[in-house]
């Protein structure tokens, strides 16, 4: 290979790559029967979930997810927003105490300022505080050189819209228009996503006579037509495009503002008379939601825009206030068993694809052994570049993944890249930065060896 080609290959390995769809999950902790954060982190390494959103900066959680390869979104609680909005020094103090001790070992990629702040007790909250708090935190990140790695945003409820149907005519509520204009402008300028908590369940539960159940469950093939000609086969896409229309109505239609579904889910149990909240409906919705998150598909208005989705929620939380359904959105029970069967498995994950907390989960690192493998959702073109680099200028002996080698099968770039990445990682002293490969590597404490294929150790 010519020197110029090697240089271009190396730059590809080190440069940002095309974003691929990932599956995120919301990890709430309002329960008195939940597994330890360490066990949660170990479980999620064995699943296709590669992003976790939490509702605070719980130090036990942040520590547990260090060196897991799973990205975290942390949050400023609503009651802290006013203080952080006061000045940049208050925001810097919060960041220094809550986040700095855990980076870079824990991959924190965003800060969610508040949760549904503008529609939570609006009589006692000052909308402009939210925007000021976001500005101050961003200023802190800029000063520390972290603004490209960590984005600042805020999750909204659908109640920030004046109406959500038809999607093409949607606008933000008049009373919130000045604040939303400032926030959307901030997101456009900083490259952060607009987060929305979207729940077709509530729309169906409150209007079962006028909302088709399958439409709410992401499965109505007949479609609902918008006056502008868009056809919606599920309510979630319509809700996303309603937000998109509201953003466009502010004058940001020509600027890139990605939309992230920061919460969406379906409860498995509800109050008496709530016929929608059943395990079957929850399984159907979340199975389709996960498929939707992995599909790399957009919406009728923006077919080519990938939508990042965070499932709500990881656990049933028995200490949450509100209706029965509020405590039963979890995929898992507090004891770690599944509420219903949703396929979260993935190939080449750590822990051998285990999906129960009680199986193959240790209380800590098992001795000194540690390996490096490719993340499940990494782009194959980038992994091929990583593979070529490791087996070329990286100096890795890759004979085991050639056709006659013990690690040739399965003949997939993901498997071959994992083998080569691990060999490179072991050669260079098992420093976490030697398993980064611009975010495609994952450090694991579980031996990824299989059959006759043995992954090297230091």
Automatic annotation (TrEMBL):
Gene Ontology process terms (BP): carbohydrate metabolic process
Alphabetic keyword roster: Disulfide bond, Glycosidase, Hydrolase, Secreted, Signal
EC annotation from Swiss-Prot or TrEMBL: 3.2.1.39
GO molecular function: glucan endo-1,3-beta-D-glucosidase activity
Annotated localization: Secreted
Catalytic activity: Hydrolysis of (1->3)-beta-D-glucosidic linkages in (1->3)-beta-D-glucans
UniProt keyword Signal present: yes
Protein name per Swiss-Prot or TrEMBL: glucan endo-1,3-beta-D-glucosidase
Species the sequence originates in: Jatropha curcas (Barbados nut)
């Amino acid at each position: 290979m010519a020197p110029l080609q090697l240089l271009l290959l190396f730059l590809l390995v080190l440069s940002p790559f095309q974003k691929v769809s990932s599956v995120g999950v919301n990890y709430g902790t309002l329960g008195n029967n939940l597994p330890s954060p360490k066990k949660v982190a170990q479980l999620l390494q064995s699943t296709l979930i590669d992003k976790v959103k939490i509702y605070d900066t719980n130090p036990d959680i942040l520590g547990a997810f260090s060196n897991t390869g799973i990205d975290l979104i942390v949050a400023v609680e609503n009651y802290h927003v006013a203080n952080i909005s006061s000045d940049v020094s208050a925001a810097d103090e919060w960041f220094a105490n809550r986040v700095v001790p855990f980076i870079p070992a824990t991959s924190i990629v965003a800060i969610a300022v508040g949760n549904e702040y503008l529609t939570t007790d609006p009589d006692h909250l000052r909308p402009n505080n939210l925007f000021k708090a976001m500005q101050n935190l961003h200023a802190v990140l800029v000063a520390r050189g972290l603004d490209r790695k960590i984005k600042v945003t805020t999750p909204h409820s659908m109640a920030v819209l004046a109406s959500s149907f038809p999607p093409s005519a949607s606008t933000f509520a008049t009373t919130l228009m000045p604040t939303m204009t400032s926030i959307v402008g901030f997101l456009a300028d900083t490259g952060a996503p607009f987060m929305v908590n979207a729940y077709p369940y509530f729309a169906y539960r409150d209007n079962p006579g006028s909302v088709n159940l399958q439409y709410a469950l992401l499965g109505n093939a007949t479609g609902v037509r918008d006056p502008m000609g868009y056809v919606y086969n599920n309510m979630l896409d319509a809700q996303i495009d309603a937000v998109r229309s509201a953003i466009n109505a502010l004058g940001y239609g020509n600027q890139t503002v990605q939309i992230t579904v920061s919460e969406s889910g379906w409860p498995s149990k509800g109050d008496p008379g709530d016929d929608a909240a059943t395990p079957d409906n929850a399984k159907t919705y979340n199975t389709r939601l996960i498929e939707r998150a992995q599909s790399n598909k957009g919406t009728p208005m923006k077919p080519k825009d990938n939508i990042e989705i965070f499932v709500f929620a990881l656990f049933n939380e028995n200490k949450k206030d509100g209706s029965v359904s509020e405590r039963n959105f979890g995929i898992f029970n507090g004891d770690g068993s599944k509420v219903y069967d949703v396929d979260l498995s993935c190939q080449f994950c750590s822990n051998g694809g285990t999906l129960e907390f009680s199986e193959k989960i240790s209380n800590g690192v098992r001795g000194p052994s540690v390996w490096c493998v490719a993340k499940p959702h990494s782009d194959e073109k980038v992994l091929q570049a990583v593979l070529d680099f490791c087996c070329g200028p990286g100096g890795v002996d890759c004979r085991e993944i050639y056709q006659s080698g013990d690690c040739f099968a399965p003949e997939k770039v993901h498997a071959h890249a994992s083998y080569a990445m691990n060999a490179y990682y072991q050669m260079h002293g098992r420093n976490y930065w030697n398993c980064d490969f611009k975010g495609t590597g994952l450090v694991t404490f579980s031996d990824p060896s299989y059959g006759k294929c043995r992954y090297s150790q230091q």
